[in-house]
Amino acid sequence: MKVMIMRKADTDTENGVMPSDDMLQAMADYNEQMLNAGILIDGTGLKPTSTGARVQFKDGEPTVIDGPFAETRELLAGFTMINVASMDEAIAWAKKWPRMDSDGNVALELRVLFEMEDFVEGEGIEKHKRAQQRLTRQPTSISTHLSFNGDCREAMAFYAEVLAGEVTFMLAYADSPMKDQVDAALQDKILHATVNLGGRLLMGADAPPGMYEQPAGASVQLHYDDVAIAKQVFDDLAAGGSATMPFAETFWAKGFGMLTDKHGIHWMINAGSPDA
Length: 276
Fold this sequence. Notes:
There is one protein chain. By secondary structure, the chain is α+β, with helices and mostly antiparallel strands. Helices cover about 25% and strands about 30% of the residues. It contains 6 helices and 14 strands. The protein starts with a strand and ends in a 5-residue tail after the last strand.
């Protein structure tokens, strides 16, 4: 059963008093105990209600009420979500809450979450189940991984420069746990590299000898709002490579072009929309 341990607000939390480093360490130790026990799902603190708002409905019409809210003892300052076998187990863990929090004067409220099995079968609950299945199957992130024929290091540095990104990871085979399992010719090649493009990741690696395949049937697609910037990126990526479709206006975009760069990677550059 999933249980939420709700840490009630007090004067300090509503006034935005930040926890001390000792308190943060104590809470981290508490969370680690639950993590090691395999019951911790999630947990975080909440900023004061002065930063929040309420949306209250009357006869179906919403009214927004800005914080702060007066009834401090009824407010929340944070929560911890756990998955336990019983309410008794949840209470036992709640009793282990760090004693130093608010000098030992903390109010915790425990509430059991509904599970799908608690509801009567019907189309409504089936919709919720389908939505839950989508959430569990969807990845937390999606990135592009490129394969290179020995020039990954140069390629990733090139992409970081052209796309205004940053090489955040570059691991050679020689520096990895696999160093004794690969040929000497592969030692200085790249096992894994990452370029961060404002939170969007471009990854790559050098394929082992005899395993490299020229990319086919896939392209890295970039979109820009600014047509001039898109054109410059297109030209920079195409330098030393070849443009398979020159950058020009189309019926779906102010600018679009396709190219294969000097490292054999296919790109599609898209910019704006025709009515923008």
